What does this fold into?
Amino acid sequence: MPELVLRNLPLFAGFELFRRFKNRNPDAIETVREMFPASSACFICDEPVGADFDLWISDDPDNPRRLSVLSVICGDCMAQPAQVRLRKLRSVVRAVWPKVRHQIRSVSPVGVLRAANR
Ligand SMILES: [Zn+2]
It folds into this structure.
């Protein structure tokens, strides 16, 4: 059973790592691979992400002013239309953080979640 891996980083450091990963910075890719082994579960579908995954980031709903939370999404889920991916992403977010109201502001390249009422 693959394990859902959620990693916290300080808010700025998390979004900076995300930005560098998206820009294919080799150091950032290496860092992210160390944080998320290939056996990590896809945040959306729960299957192992393998070596070819994308990164997902949000401010942590439990501590949105200080922490970011990162997880991974598999290639199959990333290949789905953005609206489908967003709908699934929202339902997982509601399951993981049921007490927090969420707003996902962006779906491209992956959803960026922000806790409401910040
Ligand atoms: Zn997936």
